[in-house]
Structures are given as C-alpha cells and as structure tokens.
Amino acid sequence: MESSSIMEQAVKIDSTYCGECINCITVCPFEAVTLNKDKNQVEIDPEKCQACGICYGSCPSGAISSAYYDIRALLEQVKNGLESGRSALAVTCRGSAPEPEELAEIAGVGSPDDLINILLPCVGRVPGEFYLKAISEGVQKIAVVPCGTDYCRFGKGSIVAIAKALMLKNLINQFGYDRNAIIIQPNEIKIDINPYKCIGCGNCEYVCPKDAPYLVSPGVAEVHDEKCMGCGRCISVCPAFAINLKGSDYKSISNLIGTLSGSTADKPSLLVFCCSWCEYDALDAPITYEDVDVKFIALPCSGRVDELHVLEAYQRGFDGVLVVSCKDSSCRFAEDGTAAETKDKVRKIKKKLDSMAVGGERLDICLTYPNYIRQFEPQLRVFADGIKKLGKTQL
Amino acid sequence: MIIVEQKPLEEILGYLKPYKKVLVVGCDGCTQPPRSLREAKSMAMQVEMGSKLEKKDITAKATTLVKQCCKDSVAGLGEMLEGVEAIVSMACGAGVQTLAEAFHPLPVFPAQNTMFIGSAEHNQGDLVEKCQACGDCLLGYTGGICPVALCAKGLMNGPCGGCYQGKCEVTKEVTDDQGNVTTIQNDCAWFMIYERLRDQGRLDLFKTYRPMRDARVSSSPRSIKWA
Q1: d(CA A50, CA A124)
Q2: Cβ-Cβ contacts under 8 Å, A394 against chain B
Q3: A50 neighbors A30 (Cβ within 8 angstroms)
Q4: What span, in angstroms and rounded, lies between the C-alpha atoms of A308 and B39?
Q5: Which of A199, A312, A355 sits opposite B45 (nearest CB)?
Q6: Centroid of chain to Cα A312
Q7: How far apart are CA A368 and CA A383, in angstroms?
Q8: What is the per-residue pLDDT for A4?
Q9: Which of B175, B171, B204, B205 is nearest to B188 (CA)?
Q10: For the segment A175-223, what is each residue's pLDDT rounded down to a tens digit?
Q11: Three-state SS at B176
C-alpha cells in the first residue's frame, strides 16, 4: 500500500532559536543531525531520522520540535492524572514497560491506580524540564523506567535518560526535595526458554537477528541473555511454545484477541498487529471509524506476528487483519530489516487463507515509519474500505 | 532430518469429507521444517476454516507426540481420541503408518509429503537432500559427499563427460510457491568430491575404481535386527 499524503517531518529544527550548541548532534544515535557549515545551520536529515526524539529532549533552547510527546502534551497528561487524584508519575519505555503492579512497586505506591503512567518509545526523549514542571505541578514521586543501557532500541536513549534523571535527583535535593522523589529503575524484557518444552529444532537460532538463542546437546536451546533485544521473532516460529517473553507470549496475545473480539458489533471489524516502533499516534490513541471497528495489538516487532494469531483473529470474528511493520532501513532489531521477512510471512498466510473460507485479500501488510507524520492513517482507511466492500467473513 | 512439505489444504479436506471430529497430531521428532504443536494447531484451524468453504463444520483438536514413529510413545494419545473420527498426522510417512497401525480401525491421513533425508542450508533457508539411505555407505571414500544422493546419475565413479566448470549437465525446473519457474543447475557431486579429497591430500581414493553398488541391501521392504 502506498500513501498519497504530503510528507511532513516529525522532528524539525527552527534555526531562529538554534544556538548551535550541537548537543543534538552529539546525542543523535543515527547521525541524522548535522551542522551545515556553509549555511551555519543545524539540519535534520528526515531519511536518517528515526523520530526517537532524543535530540528534542536535549535541546536547551527549544529549537527542536517533535510531533510526538512534546512537553505540553506530556504535562497535559500529568495534569489530568493529578486531577483524578493520582500522585505519582511513572515514565516508562514502551520496549521494557513492567507490569502495572510491578511498576507500582518500583514507584513505591500502593496500587497501579495511584500512578500516572506515561508510556513512551524511549525515555531519552523526555526533556529534564518536564520532570521539574511535573514536580512543581504537585507530583510527589517520579519513577523513571528506561531500558538497560545495552538494551536501548535507539542506542543512546537509556544512557541519556539515566544521566538526566541522576542530575535532576541532585538538583531537586539542593532545592530541598527528597532525593528519592526521583527513582531510576532500568528494566529489560528478554526471552526465556523452557527446557522441558523445547524440542531442539533450532528455529529460534535461525531467525534471531542478534544470535541470542543457541542449541546445546542434547537438543535444547539456551539464550545468551546479554544479546537478546526482546523482538520476539523466535516466539513466532517456536513449534513447541517453549519461549516466553513477558506480555508477548502466545497465550497473552491470544487472550487479548479474545477480549478485543468480544466487542465486535454488526459492522466489519479489523485487527491491526502493529509494531511498537513504527506508529506512535495510533497506539496511543487508537483510531476509530464509524463504519468499521478497528482494534490494535502492539507487538515488540512485526517479526512477532504469528500465523496462529492471524488465523485465530478470523476464527474469533475479525474480518480483516492488517500487519504494520517498519520500513526495512528503520527496523529497531535487525540491520537488514524485518519488513522483507514479514512480507514473506504475510504472503504465505495469504496463500493459506485463499483455500479457507476467508480469502487472502483480508490480510495485508503496511509499511510505515514515524519519521514522517500521519503516514499510517490513510493506509488504514484504504484497507478498511477494502474490507467494508468484502463484508463479513463466511465463518 | 526427514524433510517434509505440507500437502495442499484441498487434498487434506478431501480426505476428511466424511468426518466431523478430527485430531491433528504433530511430531516433535526429526521432521524439518518442524511439525510440532504449533503446526498442528495451525493445521487444525486451517481444517476448521477450510471446511466452512464447503458448508461443513469440522471440529479439529491439536496435540503432539515426541516421536510418531515410536509405538510406545503413540500410546500416550489414548484419551485425546475420545469421539475422534479421523486423525491427521503431521509426521513423515513412518509416523503416519505407525499411527494407522496403532489405532486401527481409525483412519489416519497424512498432512505432509515426505520428501527426503536432508539438511538445512541455513544461510539460504533451503532444505537439501543429502542421503538416500542406500544401505551401503560410501562417504568414507568420497570425502563425506554422497554421489548416490547428489549425482544426478548416481555414478560410482565420476565425474562423467557432463561435468562442465563444476556444474552438472542435468538441469531441473523448479516452481516456487509464488509460481516462478527457475532452472536449477546443480554442482557436480564428483567435482566436489575431487576438490574435497584434493584438499585432504587423499586423491588416491579418487583414482580407485569402485564396483557397482550392491542393490540387494536396498531392496524394499527393508528391515534389520536391532535388539
């Protein structure tokens, strides 16, 4: 699917405010920010930019603007939370968010209901100013939960986030606040393999882009923990359901499909399996249409898309399934990208659907990336229109 | 590994026409690509949704066995079989036959075509034939490359005149799952054997004449005394 809308950059720099301190050039993990010596201007290359927002969080003069999670939007969330009686704030990375109960424990509050939970793709994008403003608004405690430093999907995000939070800890202490008002607790979500279920087929070893799983005699796979980045690609090919990844294992996604399908009304319904890193808006505030029901499931990577889940979606009453994947060059896990592999997987499932009472046209893949804004919605609309025309399945 | 390939769903549904309750049985054994619980579950869903196309309503359950070709381990299927009218096996031909014998008169249908004994060329994602189970292993003389499986003519002494720049004169047209036809020209097995033995400094073996293979050891049906 191709989108026809005008491309607008997500992260922009306004040279009027830029003081050329080159903070942004130093922190950019993708060498997308450069100093144009002829014009004496700092520029962002939209093709290299991965919209991680780390430069936005590091700009001291507010010259960089981000279409996602800017300080105003974040503070709005905090204010709304405070108004509904919540007192503590948790800023977590989407790639390593702990369970709500676990998060409440980290923040030192009784229940997850006391937390204002802000889920971000990379904590490194949050400007230090935000934490200070949140405290001045009346937040009692802030739990900063980035990924571990080697686990950051954007390379430098966790280091920046942790350094910033440590500095702020000292700063607020000098202002007379308790040092522990800011808690830093890096978290990582990695696979573990159940040796009693593993049949030693080696599929995981083959598909892992980081070479984390490996086979040992007698026929069981083990994991190099430090290498695993939690994409979950291995889970989607494990024939014995031996691999677990918190929140993305077979059963929890399967249960989620069950709950989401429960609300399916008479109109056609769509299920979108969306990579957490290629579309932000739709996952934060799911798109709704009047004529078509759309439900979202966030996956750690489009490589986690599981044939069984797709088939299950149709069985549970969904009429169309859309897989959303990053473009090849932007994959957060594999250098050579996941898109080609996911496309191949989708093509194979489509072929199977053709010989069932579903039809391959009810499954599609859409490639997008947040470095340009509003790229995804038009593509979703096109797919939704297609499904509307096909109507409900015969199942 | 025993290399298998899934049959078209239409064929499997054809077998299952008279039945309504089906059990799909995976195999954790040597089938490649693996055909364990995941594939059995997928097959069960495909059968259920495929049957709707013919306005039928098959219910399919899925389970798996450690080794379908082991008579002792298939007995564990017992309670899963309650009310089941037919079994679909995801294993190789040996597994299908073991199940069919163990659960006679319940019909057992294959979901796979058993292709060959081979290995995975992981860098290309291909599965290639390595062994024909001829019963008279030559690999000790040929540098670990089998001319029976890899030479198109199965020559005992090679290469023949059809070897050109290391490639075999026999070509094969292969259609992939997208319908693209490609002509495959395999490497000459005897050229590879020559190179391997040369590198190992054992070229004298290459010059030794090998008589015809004893076909009697591979005349079907074969059996050996194991214990």
Answers
A1: 13
A2: 52-53
A3: yes
A4: 9
A5: A312
A6: 23
A7: 14
A8: 45
A9: B171
A10: 888 888 999 999 999 999 999 999 999 899 999 999 999 999 888 999 9
A11: coil
Cα-based torsion angle of the residue sequence B50, B52, B57, B58 in order, rounded to the nearest 10 degrees = 0
Q: Any residues with CB less than 8 A from the CB of A152 and at least 6 apart, and which?
A: A93, A95, A122, A124, A146, A158, A159
Helix (H) or strand (E) holding A34: strand A33-36
8 Å CB contact between A215 and A205? yes
Task: Compute how many other C-beta atoms are within 10 angstroms of the C-beta atom of residue A98.
Answer: 19
Residue A357 and residue B49: Cβ atoms within 8 Å? yes
CA distance A92 to A144: 6
Paired tokens of A365: 């893949």
Look-up of token digits 């024939």:
A239
Which residues, at least 6 apart from A130, have a Cβ–Cβ distance to it below 8 Å? A71, A74, A75
Closest partner CB to B49 (pick from A238, A307, A311): A311
All domains of chain A, ordered by start, with CATH? 11-66 (3.30.70.20), 71-184 (no CATH), 189-244 (3.30.70.20), 247-390 (3.40.50)
CA distance A173 to A311: 55
Give the model confidence (pLDDT) of B31-54 as tens digits.
989 999 999 999 999 999 999 988
**What's the whole-model pTM score?**
0.91
> In this complex, do A206 and B122 lie within 8 Å of one another by their Cβ atoms?
yes
Give me the half-sphere count of Cα atoms (radius 13 Å) on the Cβ side of residue B203.
6
Burial class (CB in 10 A: 0-12, 13-18, 19+), A289: middle
Interface predicted TM-score of the whole assembly (ipTM), two decimals: 0.89
Q: A239 and B39: CB-CB below 8 Å?
A: yes
Q: Which of residues 163-202 of A touch B (CB under 8 A)?
A: 199, 201-202
* Stretch (H or E) spanning A117: strand A115-120
Q: What angle do CA B121, B123, B128 make, to 5 degrees?
A: 15
Do you find a cis peptide bond into A300, omega within 30 degrees of 0? Answer: no
Are A268 and A391 contacting, i.e. CB atoms less than 8 angstroms apart?
yes
* B144 Cβ contact list (under 8 Å, min separation 6): B196
